Amino acid sequence: MAHASKPAISSLRIGLKCLPLLLLAGMAHAQTCLSAADLDGPVRKALETTAERFFEMSSHGDTAGLRQNSIPMVSSNFSGVEAAVKENQPDFAGAQAIIRPPFLLTADGTAPVPHAEFLCGVFGPSGQTSQSAVFVLNDLPPGKYAVTILDVSGGKQPRTLTLVLQQVGPDWKLAGYYARATQIAGHDGHWFGARARDFKAKSQLHNAWLYDREAIALSSPIDFMSTLASDRLYDEAHAVQPSDMPANGSAVDFTVAGKTYRLTEVFPLAVGDDLEVVVKYSSSDISNTPKTFQENMALIKAVAAKFPELRDAFAGVVARAVDASGNDYGTMLPMKEIK
């Protein structure tokens, strides 16, 4: 289980079109989920109290306390959690957190589950309802886990803090820490979803797809959780997904003046109050920075020329050349300066 997460664009799509098959898979792997309404009062109270205590530690920057209250796998590799706490403390300090109804996940057995699926709450004939959720976790060790989501407001920016807890003896320990923004530039996922539909109505499918992805990122507190609302957003994004944009791990070629760029990712990125579009591509060598800068600039101008609709949705374009080691060199150009 990952230890920390920054806001990111999720590529997870959990479909429930074949609910009976998923139910059978869950039964075969002995995975069960209890929603808050099904929990015993003392269990629910213990989960909520623990989550609130860990939030208080986060708001005060008490990484030592969090580490002491973590499972061994997390405490022995705590740098990700520590970085997330420090990064989000300005949003947590002095803020108030309201905890959502928790979920209790149980994975039976003696070995990690390669692909654990937990179906929580009430489902309908077509799958998810407003009273359901699905969690998908890979290589999950057997045990009892809880997913507790806190809505944090009153700080610098509203956020969600999702704490995955694992039962160790009578105690609940920290097993996962995920902080995520719920707004950028004052706009939430609902706003981006509505704007995506507006772009679709104007046949600006690239803008619609990118805004749908931002709506998903802002509306989903964690990537491994699916709800009816997130499923609908995924469906809308899939319906407008352009064939000339990289998606789901597949790259596309983009040719500029005889040079072919291998685009690996295109996604929105909030920078202050602006929303920019980032274009990442593979590069064999970024050590010659003047050359890489020129290649970035050529790509930026070509992207803006080929997809002029981006000017209606983004304040700038960022090109990032990424070498085989994952190092990158980025260049940003505001839309108003792209000729």
Task: Provide structural commentary.
The protein has 3 domains: 19-184; 187-240, no CATH class; 252-337, 2-Layer Sandwich (Alpha-Beta Plaits). The chain is built from 9 helices and 16 strands. It has helices at residues 19-28, 41-59, 63-68, 72-75, 79-92, 189-201, 205-219, 228-240, 289-306; strands spanning 31-34, 96-99, 103-107, 113-121, 132-140, 143-153, 159-168, 171-181, 183-184, 187-188, 225-226, 252-256, 259-271, 274-282, 316-322, 328-334. Strands 1, 2, 3, 6, 7 and 8 form a 6-stranded antiparallel beta sheet that branches. α6 (189-201) runs antiparallel to α7 (205-219) and α7 (205-219) packs antiparallel against α8 (228-240). The longest helix has 19 residues, at 41-59. The radius of gyration is 22 Å and the shape is globular. 39% of the residues are buried.
What's the arrangement of secondary structure elements?
Layout: H1 19-28, E1 31-34, H2 41-59, H3 63-68, H4 72-75, H5 79-92, E2 96-99, E3 103-107, E4 113-121, E5 132-140, E6 143-153, E7 159-168, E8 171-181, E9 183-184, E10 187-188, H6 189-201, H7 205-219, E11 225-226, H8 228-240, E12 252-256, E13 259-271, E14 274-282, H9 289-306, E15 316-322, E16 328-334
Parallel strand pairs: 14-15
Antiparallel strand pairs: 1-3, 2-6, 3-6, 4-5, 5-11, 6-7, 7-8, 9-10, 12-13, 13-14, 15-16
Helix pairs in contact: 6-7, 7-8
